[in-house]
Amino acid sequence: MIKGLITDIQRASIHDGYGIRTTIFFKGCPLSCPWCHNPECISFEKEILHYPEKCIGCGKCSEGCFAGAKVVCGKEYTPDELLCEILLDKDYYGENGGVTFSGGEPLAQKDFLKEIIRLCKNSDIGCAVETSLIYYDEDIFKNLDFIMADLKIWDGELHKKYLGTDNYNIKEHFKMLDKLNIPIILRTPVIPRINQEIDKISEFSGTLKNVVAYELLPYHSLGTAKAKALCKPITEFEIPSKEYMKELSKYAYIR
Amino acid sequence: MLTYADRLKSMRDTKIRHTLAKREQNGYTDLDDFGTVPITPEYEVEPWYNSSNGSFYGYDGMSENFCRVIDAHPAYVDPMEMLCGRWRDMLVNYRGDLHYMPDWLKKRPKTMEFMKTATNQWSKRWDEQRFPYDDLKPFQEKYNIQTGIDGDAHFACDYRIGFRLGFGGFLDKIEKYRKINPEKQYFYNAEEKVVKTIIRFIDRHIEEIERQIKTEKRTEIKASLEKMLAVNKNIRLDAPKTFHEVCQWTVYFNCASRIYTRDGAGFQLDGLLLPYYENDIKNGILDDETAKFLIANLLLTDPHYYQISGVNENDEDMTNHLSYLILEAADSINIACNLTVRVHENCDKEFLKKAVYYLLKNKNGWPRFCNDKALAEGYMRNGIDKRTARERIAVGCNWMCVPGKEFPMNDTVKINIAKVFDVALSEMKSEKNKSTQRLYEIYKKHLKKAVEVTAAGINLHLEHQWEVTPELVMNLMMENSIELGEDISKCAELYTVGVDGVGLAVVADSFGALETRVEKEKLLTWDEVYTALDSNFADERIRLILSSTPKYCHGGTLSDLWAKELTKSWTNAVKEQKMPKGRQLIPGWFSWARTIEYGKNVGATPNGRRSGEPVSHGANPNPHFRGDGAATAQASGIASVQCGYGNTAPLQLEFDPQVAADEKGVEVVLNLIETHFRQGGTLININVLDGEKLLEAHKNPDLHPDLVVRVTGFTAYFASLSPEFRQLVVDRFLSEL
Q1: Do the Cβ atoms of A66 and B667 come within 8 Å?
Q2: Cα B252 to Cα B56: distance, rounded to the nearest angstrom
Q3: What is the model's pTM?
Q4: How far is A99 from chain B (nearest CA, A)?
Q5: What is the pLDDT of residues B251-276, one digit of tens each?
Q6: Does B545 sit within 8 Å of A92, measured CB to CB?
Q7: CATH topology for A4-249?
Q8: Is the ipTM of this complex over 0.90?
Q9: Is the CB of residue B730 less than 8 Å from the CB of residue B737?
Q10: Whether B627 and A8 lie within 8 Å, measured CB to CB
Q11: Taking the domains of chain A in order of start, what are their residue ranges?
């Protein structure tokens, strides 16, 4: 039986697409964006999050930590087990809500993703993904109601500098995706002084007929606490001000 | 020239000043605002005692002291308003019981001299000398029962009776039935005295309005005062005929019933006021802007519980143009407000969307939402017909009532099941073969006893309330009372008495933790658990092992199953209790705002709760029931623990402050409400709070004196709550984000 490694399940999510949604955070991502706000979703292995301030000093770590000082991150689910969790909120999804597969990069566990999407569709549950579009899988995409896809940095060299790979394939995947006639929500994380060519991404979106919205996601530092808990090096970025976001939003348009 | 908007702003500013002044006079209070205005320096009451225990009871005691308190009330006329009259004080404050005496009263040496017999020895709200219940007390204490003995006012008047008769009509009716029932002179004398005192209250307002007219220079305000004067003269004896008059009449009746025993039940606002609105519009004497101003003014005078929208007995939508105006009016004044929208699938969906929009826009906890289907069908399961069930409207914190017909004592009777569980757990300690099933058997045995004791208390109360605290003001608008010359506590058509369970989540999570950690996982032994509880969790690791068990409302947990099972045993215990004289008990889950008080009576519990900590709130889960605090998980959990007989297990929700008052936000919240109701939920109280503002106000309440939170069924000004209670609201808010 195929299993998926899941970091977390968030019910009643209202910021990951339309309506009331259940967001499934897949564990593992081939990219390592230094500003990632979900650093616990990068590794494809189970990990331990360390919160020493919660330790009660009982000395019984090997028998299990109940204080929350050592938290296992990552749990394996069969598709049926995950469907059970998703079904808990089926009544609330309404016409527009459903499930959002996020991460990490959900397409990195494509066989599991395909299966859970199939099960959701059989249960009349709307599905969406949040993806970096580093992968392209038509079989998956064509079964979705909409796709939230990132174009994090316009310039290829800069993309390679920060993300370890250029964005040629990602842009190509956008073009291929556009041919499937599925609504696309284009998104860019805003990291001041790093990705400022929002106007060029907007222009690019103008060449795609299925982009229904272009969202700018301001960088926030919530990921740093989790990086610290993972004992990973912490890179702090500037948090964009409201004024900065307002100004930048003038350049984020579709067609 | 002052516009309505200018006047509303002034009224709102005055309200904020009053809130701060009242806190100065009364200290912190974990209660509804009740619409009172501050006590004036010259205010003084000389109470009259007719009992040797230093208190007053019965028809003569209550009517005489009502006169004394209401006669001491100065007129309240704010020229910015179109309605006049406010209350400040109530007569039960003078019963000589220090437990219930407000701070300002204790600072009045002259008044305290009147009440020199005041004592802390026992509650004087009930005449224990004549109607003792010493045999019940040990059990009431053992199970931490809020008995309802000494309660009052928790039922609803049929305002149509008052609107039809007016105060003069009340006097005529009293005279008519006095002749038919000559042996009931004491009753009729008291009722007559009450009505005449209310008329004197109106007369003092007429004098004050006349005085203000003489000095008022602003043309538009002078005209407004002259209109106010005419309205007051028209309704001092006659029945109200116009929209303005019916609003003013309501203010006076509400003032009187508040001064009497702080009654707070309103009516179907968009139904009963509609004929007056339509008639005035037809006659060209009212426009929508004035109607809205009058409604806003009515809501400002008192946060009574009013219901709007819903369906009639034929399932036809009752939403009308006035329903919309009421929402707009509430928006224009935007204060603590207890409007409840009745939701039914046949109701105007646009109206529901608008109601949700205002909830999100103003973030002031109004309106609330109740579910017609679950409430009406549930109530019919008690053998009540559909028409009557439909008349049973939302008029209290957690409760419904059939106006004019029902005497439900709702929200006055509660059993702390966490305490019952505590007793059961202690009893099992000495047994050799311990198990959750055995514990549950012992729990059910004690629960049965607790319900029996509660029923005995209710029956004692119903037999004698008329001799202690007769409902002399509310009797005027109840069916049968004046006609028979009997207090409504003796002659109501329906005695469907509400009994609420308290501490559901504590008990469900305790059973869940024991079954998971002791029986299934064998991480702990029973002895280890008992040792931990006895030492109030000296071993923190054991506490954490227990408290980290998946909780009620997480979804699909053992604690979720226990919550359902506990609901079943609670419902059975309450419904199976035999009652005399056609009375029956109706189960619900509700703690009101007393979670701190109830918690103090309960030792450490196996869900990791330390001794004396607050119990869970109403039907709500314990804090941190899920990492994501999902509102949907909470809503589904609470829908699964409904008792099903027409009383509520409310969903008290702290909603994400980032939900915007836009199409998407409205869709999300509406979906949540409708789904919870489809699943069988009964009542939803939602706080959409600005977290930053809340935390600022927690540090310094005076920064945001206008911040309103829905504490439980009622809304309150955050600045007026005690620091302990503010912390509880903040914790609840933070744990559900």
Answers
A1: no
A2: 25
A3: 0.94
A4: 14
A5: 999 999 999 988 879 999 999 999 99
A6: no
A7: TIM Barrel (3.20.20)
A8: yes
A9: no
A10: yes
A11: 4-249
